[in-house]
Amino acid sequence: MKQIETATGVASIWKRTAQIGIIFFTLLMFFCGPPRPDTPPGLESDQPEVPPYEELAPRLKSENWSTRSETLLEIERGDYRQAIPEMLRLLRSDPHPAVRQTAALILGSFKVQEAAPIIARMLASDKEVSPDYLMEALARLEATG
């Protein structure tokens, strides 16, 4: 009988030790991990700073259509509304359709009403620019907020 009580005592000690171990490792898993970030996930920006407009303006006259298009996107990110006259010029007469459609979208985002008749004309006559982009530009012109 004594032997059964001893075996039961040893088993309960092992059981208790296992429970403590499980609790310890559970707490370890919950409270250990990578360090907390200094800023919340939505606030940090992966995009580099937008250069000043004076640095971007000459790139709108680049020979490379891709450079002109990327510059337009940087102008939008920087909210450089002083570029509106140049964007209207690109919308009317740039030789590359990607630049014209990028200009249309950004002018729509900037709510430049002067661009509406130009975009409408392009919708009817410019077969190189996708009508989807032009319709989106007009929708952005009309959107509030």
Query: Between the first and last Cα atoms, what is the distance in angstroms?
Result: 84 Å
Biggest pleated sheet: none
Give the H and E element order.
HHHHHHH
The helix fraction, in percent, is 55-70%
The gyration radius over C-alpha positions equals 32 Å
Oligomer: single chain
Helix segment tally: 7
Mean pLDDT: 84
Q: Proportion of β residues?
A: under 5%
Q: Which of globular, elongated, flat, extended, rod-shaped describes the shape?
A: elongated
Number of strands: 0
**Low-pLDDT residue spans:** none
What structural class do helix, strand and pairing data support? mainly alpha
Describe this structure in words.
Helix 3 (65-78) runs parallel beside helix 5, helix 4 packs antiparallel against helix 5 and helix 5 packs parallel to helix 7 (131-142). The longest helix has 30 residues, at 2-31. It contains 7 helices and no strands. It has helices spanning 2-31, 53-56, 65-78, 84-93, 97-109, 115-125, 131-142. It has 145 residues and is mainly alpha-helical. The protein is elongated and about 90 Å long. 65% of the residues lie in helices and 0% in strands. The protein has a domain at 53-142.
